[in-house]
Amino acid sequence: MVMTINQRLRQRLGSLRASPGGWLIAALSLVLIIQCARLVFVLITPATPVGAWQPRQPVDMPADAKADLFARVDPFYRSVAPTEAGSTTVTSLQLQLFGVRIDGGGGSAIIAGGDGIQKSIGVGEDIQPGVRLRSVHFDHVAIDNGGKIELLYLDQGQATASAPASADSPAGTPTTAIPAPQAGAPLSAAALRSGLALSPRTIGNRVTGISVAQQGDGTTFAAAGLRAGDVIRAVNGRPITSAADISAISAQLAPGARLSLDVERGAGTVPIAITIPNGNP
């Protein structure tokens, strides 16, 4: 006797009803079938997008964008912040910057005047009559000195107590320490002329700066904030371009003079301000 499919299903259901764990076995079998189907789907489905994968190609900058970038940024020479574009003058005022704070309100700075008293100045406030704090940056501030934008750096005016040993010195050769400058000791024009040795630095038959070396005991050299190996790149914002600039600098060393120097030191540039008080020939 041949059983139909309907009869077989009824017979199977009847046996499941008769068995106490029949429905549990049926449920577990269904779960097992579903999990097997999911496993097969995971194995046959590619993990990456369909097709040949290609890495993303780098996007090169246009030529004009490159030219504009390298015109604004020089990794070997401290550049001016964009907000002070056109101003490369380090202030010659007797001010010293001790700290900066940048926040959403514009920031503030701790600045001391000629009296040495430190004050917290906010952006837009007067540092002294006619001099206003314009903006604050990570290593310097910009000040408005009677309508002229000037820069004041954190390391401006800091002098070193001793000169580093020269790389050309033979091993075992003792080095002479430069005496530490006395706080508040004024510089004189005569001391600067006798204590500084100036010579042109040339690269490819072109004068690119003035090399500075100490003469005498080095007291004036250290008091001016200079170190062995320093090269003056600009004076009062004017770049050094010829050996005749040495005579021009010497002529400016006079009572009442204020010189703002851009000094190349190692791979960076340090701004130094030299002020010769009146009455110090």
Summarize the structure.
It is built from 6 helices and 13 strands. It has 281 residues and is α+β, with helices and mostly antiparallel strands.
Walk me through this protein's architecture:
- The chain crosses the membrane at residues 21-44.
- This is PDZ domain-containing protein.
- It comes from Sphingomonas lacunae.
- It is found in: Cell inner membrane.
- Residues 162-182 are annotated as: Disordered.
- By secondary structure, this protein is of the alpha+beta class.
- Among the domains are: 78-153, SH3 type barrels (Roll); 189-275, Pdz3 Domain.
- Helix content is 24%, strand content 27%.
- The chain contains six helices and 13 strands.
- Strands 8, 9, 10, 11, 12 and 13 form a six-stranded antiparallel beta sheet that branches. Strands 4-5-6-7 form a four-stranded antiparallel beta sheet, with no helix packed on it.
- The longest helix is centred in the N-terminal third of the chain and has 23 residues, at 22-44.
- It is elongated and about 125 Å long.
- The model is unreliable at 77-87 and 156-184 (pLDDT under 50).
